[in-house]
Amino acid sequence: MRAPRLLIAALLLWAAAGAQAAVSVVDDAGRRVTVEQAARRVISMAPHATELLFAAGGGARVVGAMNYSDYPEAAKKIPLVGSNSVIDMERVLALRPDLIVVWHSGNTARQIAQLESLGVPVFHSEPRTLEQVADNVERLGRLLGTGPAAEAAAAALRARLKGLEARYARRSPVTVFYQIWDQPLYTLNDTQIASDAIRLCGGRNVFGSLRAVAPEVGIEAVLQADPEAIMAGKRYDPANPGLRLWEPYKSMTAVKRGNLLTVEGELLTRPGPRVIDGAAQLCEALDAVRQRRPK
Description:
The chain has helices spanning 2-19, 47-55, 89-94, 109-116, 130-144, 147-168, 193-200, 219-225, 253-256, 265-269, 275-291, and strands at 23-26, 32-35, 42-44, 62-66, 80-82, 99-102, 122-124, 174-179, 181-182, 185-186, 203-205, 229-233, 260-263. The chain is of the alpha/beta class and 295 residues long. The strands form four sheets. It has a five-stranded parallel beta sheet, with helices on both faces. A hairpin with a 5-residue loop joins strand 1 (23-26) and strand 2 (32-35).
């Protein structure tokens, strides 16, 4: 009887060791991130990262977050560790994180350096394409030890992407100007995830080739590009003209055809799981633009 008992004990020890085995992934900065065991206390340094962690099945493990981490509803109850301008490092330390998720485009280099100096594993999350959102969900799931849930969520996102691509990608191109701010006038280039959604829907960002991620452009440049559609997020400050800026320019194609489109900007520019919802809405909007072309 002793041998079977020894075998069972060995198997139990092996299983326990496997459960505690270190896990490594490569993050969006190309760095290898290793946790000695599944992360249990995670700090999210960006709203999109909070959404990714929830999608990966680790929402209950997020012990700290940055301001504007407002989705899903449970995220609003997470203690804040700072804003995009300042981090409360004492609060970070007090929360005893075993994983920190940062965002290069939202956190300053100094902030990231401070966090990395703590000796806690740091995952850089920077999805530039819709597919990379699903990749982030999978990799975070591995670090959290929630692989099955994360893989299921990623598979669902990819299935929706394939459906949108099959339906819209080959439709006639629509030139688009994406207005993210009006005073001064700012847009996005092709490295931002919103432009990937535009491509998916058969659109073309007229300023996609500019070098800066969020370049400032002039009204004359937009008039010269003469996009078929102009998109902007919802206005929350009545003092900002938003899309009304273009109403006086009656000769513009977008104005003539009624293609001044209001979009839910957060769904398109925040690189989390809901960006697929934003892409679906955008595809429908661009299809309506095609329907308004002269016969």
